[in-house]
Amino acid sequence: MSTTDTTNMSTTTTTGRPVRTDGGVGTDAARPDGVLKVTGEFAYGSDLWADEMLWGVTLRSPHPAARIRSIDISAALAVPGVYAVLTADDVPGAKSYGLEFDDQPVLAGDVVRYQGEPVALVAAEHPETARRAAARIVVDYEVLEPITDAREALGHRPAAEPVPDLHPEPTPVVERSREAAPLHPRGNLIRHLKIRKGDVDAAAAESDVVVEGDYEVGMQDQAFLGPESGLAVPAEDGGIDLFVATQWLHVDQQQICRALDLPPERVRLTLAGVGGAFGGREDLSMHVHACLLALHTGKPVKMSYNREESFFGHVHRHPAQLHYEHGFSRDGDLRFVRATIWLDGGAYASSSAAVVGNAGLMGIGPYVVPNVWMDAYGAYTNNPPCGAMRGFGAVQAAFAYESQMDKAAAALGMDPVELRCRNAMEEGSVAPTGQVVDSPAPVAELLRRLQAMPMPDALVGNGSGSGHDLRRMPGGVANSTHGEGVRRGVGYAVAYKNIGFSEGFDDYSTARVRLEVTGGEPVVTVHTAAAEVGQGLVTVQQQIARTELGVERVVVAPADTAVGSGGSSSASRQTYVTGGAVREACVRVRARALALTGRDSWDDVDDAVLVRALGEDAVEETVEWRHRPTEAVDPETGQGFAHVQYAFAAHRAVVDVDVELGLVKVVELACTQDVGKAINPQAVVGQIHGGSAQGLGLALMEEVIVTEGIIRNPSFTDYLIPTILDMPPMTVDVLELPDPHAPYGLRGVGEPPTISSGPAVLAAVRAATGQFLTRVPIRPEHITGT
């Protein structure tokens, strides 16, 4: 299915009963929130309001590393209109929380480990009053020397050695020295993943061509438009009701319960309107803080970060340093890969252990290689905490392994696409973990389809500076260039990504489906705790219910903790797992409803029959649904059935680069992706566009600049993200090769395009400049050499 083939299609249920609308599985069903968001009527978390509401504000550390000698809150308490000033001593339960390790303090008490760490809270009747009071809190810090390099933190680089500027020629891996002073009691190592397969040394000796490279990926921000916001309302039972923009209601609830020392039935969460997420809302931000202030004051408390505070209030994509060595036969067969990846986890672990897992397990790319030696490390530093972001470890690795494939193609005198196709995974291939790929893996087909797409028009003019449309030039109508130094480049990249939680995690979702008669017609209500973060999950739940039950009116209840966990809206998993839960619940509801009708087949049940059979009764089923189990990989070899599903995408990028000024314009991005089954074809294409934009941003402009632990650009003025003027036209070719293990044969969609788009842009800039660039984002000085 191509982007032009997105017309609504008729569909039927699994039993044959016609769906009465065009809103079932496989159609471009309308999003119920779409009009509200376009017109500005949609209520986001920052729009929350309650009578007699107070405003909460956080005091944050200005230092990336320091001991706290004392905190004086007396001046803040004296400000008129202030209701509460809280410090770590006021946390009634567990003092720390975290997704995988409880290593992050609710409020810093003895030490701060990153710039922006919360130290104290203020609640006041007006946000400006709260900010003025926070500014009067006196914290006596003993400033310490920060550890800001992951390799230095682990002792993999001598502390006296400066971090080198990466350049086209590889540098040797530095021998291990003494580990830096530990930032946590468990040391500075978050996780070390090892993959050992075959005999790499023997394969290296037998390889005809060996290429090495050192690569670096900067820190990327999720850059969601709706900053962190929530409203905590104290309840009569002594508990709390929290309305919050998040990705994972139940894991938030668990952490909040521990910090407040309250049972789950007294900590109730409801999803507020989410203005984007991309991984940045998987961790707690203001959740516990707002609850603490509300319980302390007995009044509703709203907290809403501004843009600068948002940069300090959520995790970012891990910066990475990567060293790769690939060996090939003379004919281009990939013989071995030896690689080391260092991920900077920042001050706290967040989901770093899982990110390390993905970076290592996905770190070879979608290629068949018999011999692998991979080490992936995650380290604590005094940089901002890093965690989940779209692509989750696989993004960083893809820049390195795809660069290596281009370098090898040049050394072998082969076309880069041909080299990739020669070594591409296919169904039945064995991954570096020993796992057999047991569903379609159309890596070569994706690349061939890209090659067959028409190329965009060439530049008009002769390169002399005349005859060019400035709107098509790097720099645009800023009149930076008239085309004198502009060169065109084309680059390809392919990637794969695990879908769902892996390595033995108990990955499930819960769905409650209710069928009843309202207003004389059947109505289905679907209730899950799965977070709609902009990906279209509400629509997907409606589509599945319409398809399985043949009922037009489907209501999706607000996501909250009154129903069982839906897991996180991450890992491209919600359509697979929550979709599977909704489908199974619908199947069970259908079976019970059919029994009430007295009919033999659902094909014979129309709305009138349903209305008579149900009367004033309702049929309801709650299902906890799991995909097939995965397993933890062997800690010494990395072997094991780690992933339930792989998804594949490929990109071709065409760029124009002014090699004299270092300006880059992406002329076109083309993408091919296998989605198994497009539940909502138009939404699938939208996800591919969005993921591609974030990959392009990391390749060319997006970076949180951190110097000695200090963020230098916490604003959208200085942190650049692609706008509509930066995004090129996109051609998207969607394949639907069903996975027999997945509901409807679907695959997760959201992450793969982020993984392959950036390396394709990097490859295209290399082709235009003739320079083997090794760091992203690419800066003008990397191109010009100045």
Structure at a glance:
Helix content is 25%, strand content 24%. The chain has 786 residues and is an alpha+beta fold.
What are its keywords?
disordered N terminus; 18 helices; single chain; seven-stranded mixed beta sheet; about 775 residues; alpha+beta
Characterise this structure.
With 786 residues, the protein is of the alpha+beta class. Strands 3-7-1-14-11-12-13 form a 7-stranded mixed sheet, sandwiched between helices. Strands 9-17-16-15-10-28 form a 6-stranded mixed sheet, sandwiched between helices. A 4-stranded mixed sheet has the order 18-23-24-27, sandwiched between helices. Strand 25 and strand 26 form a beta hairpin. Helix 11 (416-422) packs antiparallel against helix 12 (443-452). The two termini are 46 Å apart.
Provide the fold topology.
Blueprint (H helix, E strand, L loop, with lengths): L33 H6 L14 E7 L5 E7 L1 H4 L4 E5 L9 E2 L6 E2 L5 E2 L5 E7 L2 H9 L2 E6 L6 H5 L34 E9 L2 H7 L2 E9 L11 E6 L5 E5 L4 H12 L6 E5 L15 H11 L3 E4 L2 H7 L6 E9 L5 E13 L5 H10 L9 E10 L13 H19 L3 H7 L20 H10 L33 E13 L9 E11 L2 E8 L8 H13 L3 E4 L17 H24 L9 H8 L3 E9 L19 E13 L4 E12 L6 H20 L5 E2 L2 E2 L18 E6 L16 H18 L5 E2 L3 H5 L2
Parallel strand pairs: 1-14, 10-28, 12-13, 16-17, 20-21, 24-27
Antiparallel strand pairs: 1-7, 2-6, 2-8, 3-7, 4-5, 9-17, 10-15, 11-12, 11-14, 15-16, 18-23, 19-20, 19-22, 23-24, 25-26
Helix pairs in contact: 6-7, 9-10, 10-17, 11-12, 13-14, 16-17
